[in-house]
Amino acid sequence: MGLREENKKGEEREYAECSVVLINNITNGIGAALSSKLADMGVTAYTIIDKYDGYSITSNMRVVEAKKGDGYGVEESVSRIVKEAKRIDMLINLPAYARLGTIEDLSVEELVEQFNANLFYTARLIKAVVPVMKVRGRGMIINVTSLAGMMGFPAITAFASSMFALEGLSECLRYELMQYGIDVVLVEPGAVKSDKDILRLPRLEEYSDTLKNVQRGLMHLIEHGLNADDVADTIIKIINCYRQGSRLGMRYIVGDHAYAMFEAKRSMSEDEFEELIRKDVGLD
């Protein structure tokens, strides 16, 4: 079954093979950076997309085209991957997009679309992949959320809500799946420069005053945010720890800004933290 080592708790764990990875989104800048790094490790990566439009992908990437309409085509796509690769060692879920806007700006349909893209599609992938991992008796699911999955910010209402929901789903999954040798991990980056490519504004002629006021502050955070490589490097480190049989934690926060905000929320009063958020996004 492979080499063994003792982890910090003295438990015997096997070195885990990780040769086939499914990434749910390569249009996200993190996904593109990650696929390149996985290629250097000799890992074959699969992705499921609506239509191949000439995305820049590496030679290790296998594209499965599936209409993400009714039913999303998830189960059929996962079956095709397993038939070809005989396994799926890891599932990495990345946010599809982030809808900007306050609750005033957003329609109920836009809220539903955001949850469909970032939560329900992810849940369908997990439901399709988990049985494959259970047969092998091991595997890992990495859900990349956001600092906005741990705390709310104005004018990213739909996105933050979907990330909070994915965090809750991930916590439940970790308990449910650990008995089958399947690890569930959260990666929580702060603002990433490539986020600008996944932002969407509400379909309105006129935006709320709050959105107008904070949009510039939000864009400033993104422009001065992490590189996609920074997040991809953290994921690679997690994969290497998994391969070595190390015990994995639940959460991995990425970026100085995210760490600072997380520590501030823990140490400040609610009033102090609210004032910090208002200044951070440009409401003051």
**Tally of extended strands?**
11
Estimated structural class: alpha/beta
Proportion of residues in extended strands: 15-25%
The portion of residues assigned to helices is 40-55%
Short structural summary:
The protein is of the alpha/beta class and 284 residues long. The protein contains eight helices and eleven strands.
What does it look like?
With about 280 residues, the protein is an alpha/beta fold. The chain has one domain (about 5-280): Rossmann fold (3-Layer(aba) Sandwich), CATH 3.40.50. About 45% of the residues lie in helices and about 15% in strands. It is built from eight helices and eleven strands. The strands form three sheets. Strands 5-4-3-6-8-9-11 form a seven-stranded parallel beta sheet, sandwiched between helices. The protein has a two-stranded antiparallel sheet with strand order 1-2. Strands 7-10 form a two-stranded parallel ribbon. The model is unreliable at about 1-10 (pLDDT under 50).
